[in-house]
Amino acid sequence: MWVGGEFLFDPENPLRFGDNVQFEETVERVKSLNHNETIFVDYNRRYVNEAGLSQVEKRRICYLYGLYSEEERASPTDTIRPDEYKWITLSKVTNFRMSALTFNSHLLHYDESYCKEVEGYPKVVVQAPLLFEIALQFWLNRAGKGKDVKRIKYKVSRPVFVDQQVKVCFKEMDGRKWKLWLEDSGGETLSMLLTERPSAGPDKTCRAA
Q1: Measured distance CA(78)–CA(185) in Å, rounded
Q2: Rounded distance, CA 74 to CA 76, Å?
Q3: Where does the record locate the signal sequence feature (predicted)?
Q4: How many CB atoms lie within 10 A of CB 36?
């Protein structure tokens, strides 16, 4: 399960179409819990073009030995009121298109029989990158136009399933940071993102990563 991570960008050295890019991936940490029934793996991924380091991605994957349990509930979301929100419902077709686009062939994202009989999920699981793309696009269209972003942090609290109604929200926090999150119909937080603009001075975040 994709449970969290972070993207760091160098606004002065963005990746462009036609760039020759060197990709480096390393395993930073492996942590086992509950007698190896839950294993967290942290990956560090670097994208380097001719001008140097352009992007860094930190990704945390959780491997579970047991089946999914409905009792694993997220904490209720805080009392922050969103600046704007919208309701969406993702279909199996939309989820499958994301799987095809990202070459993700895991049955978890399109085979309902596998999800129920093997993994214990009630329905097909929506890809986390699809949720983040929708949240970021909503923020970009409504509030983020013309704004550079140097950092995006995200966390997945619990899975989202196809045909599940989800509320996409965002709120400006301090002029340089925005909080984006998704809720279910009961108000529980499903996933969360934080975007951060570059400061007025030189940005060294990506270069130092």
Answers
A1: 15
A2: 6
A3: none
A4: 9
Name which CATH class applies to 2-208. Answer: alpha beta
Instruction: Please check whether residue 1 is in contact with residue 64, taking contact to mean a CB–CB distance below 8 angstroms.
Output: yes
Asked if 197 and 44 touch (Cβ cutoff 8 Å), the reply is: no
CB-based burial of residue 8 (10 Å sphere; 0-12 exposed, 13-18 middle, 19+ buried)? buried
DSSP label at 143?
I
Provide the H-helix boundaries in 42-199. 92-101, 112-114, 128-139
Of 50, 62, 1, which Cα lies nearest the Cα of 22?
50
Mind listing the pLDDT tens digit for each residue in 60-97?
999 888 777 765 554 555 568 899 999 999 999 999 99
Query: Cβ neighbours of residue 209 under 8 Å, at least 6 residues apart?
Result: 8, 46, 53, 56
Q: Give dist(CA 157, CA 4) in Å, integer.
A: 9
Q: Which two tokens stand for residue 168?
A: 């996409």
Please report, for the chain, the start and end positions of each structural domain, with discontinuous segments joined by +: 2-208
The verdict on pTM exceeding 0.90 is no
Please tell me whether residue 103 adopts helix, strand or coil conformation: coil
CB 169 within 8 A of CB 187: no
pLDDT in tens, 43-65: 999 999 999 999 999 999 998 88
